[in-house]
Design goal:
- The structure is a single chain.
- The chain is an alpha+beta fold and about 170 residues long.
- Helices cover about 45% and strands about 15% of the residues.
Length: about 170
């Protein structure tokens, strides 16, 4: 099954949030079942590290809600609970220092990686984590524009719709 979502390619935490979207005014959710989880794991490049099963789906849904709580409400409690399922172990190997992801219960691996990715985004530039400015869009993006003023997840869709609506509203 191909990934049906309208916006791909965001960092893992935001990509997980974007498993929910609106299509023709109707809410969609890729993660309603294990088959949708398999699509997301493939899109995220995690199929070799995670299994699409009910336990992993529940962990990923927990992480999605926790990431949303941080991005929209600055509420860290649930995200910290997801992060409790793993850690980064620093080690020295023959080739030099290495950070090793240590997740004892592998059903939490994709969820933990998405939560950890959000921490990286918050460290780099928290003000560049944005929700699309179109009033009917629920998608998120990480603004990588030079001046940091991107407003829409996609200029081709939401940006054009907004500008067209504004243009037609001005006409008599």
């Amino acid at each position: 099954m191909r990934d049906p979502r309208p916006h791909l390619g965001e960092p893992l935490a935001l990509d997980l949030l974007n498993t929910r979207w609106n299509e023709n005014g109707h809410p969609q959710d890729l993660l309603i079942d294990v088959a949708g989880l398999a699509v997301w794991l493939a899109s995220a490049g995690l199929t070799d590290r995670a299994t699409a099963d009910e336990a992993t789906l529940n962990a990923v849904l927990t992480a999605r809600a926790a990431i949303y709580d941080v991005v929209r409400n600055a509420a860290p409690t649930a995200l910290n609970e997801v992060l409790e399922h793993g850690r980064i172990r620093r080690t020295l190997t023959d080739t030099g220092p290495e950070d090793v992801t240590d997740i004892p219960d592998t059903t939490w691996l994709p969820a933990w990686l998405a939560a950890d990715n959000l921490l990286h985004l918050l460290t780099e530039a928290p003000d560049r984590i944005r929700q699309c400015a179109h009033p009917d869009c629920v998608l998120f993006f990480y603004d990588t524009s030079k001046n940091g003023t991107r407003r829409w997840h996609s200029m081709a869709t939401c940006g054009n719709r907004t500008k067209a609506a504004r243009h037609y509203a001005k006409k008599p």
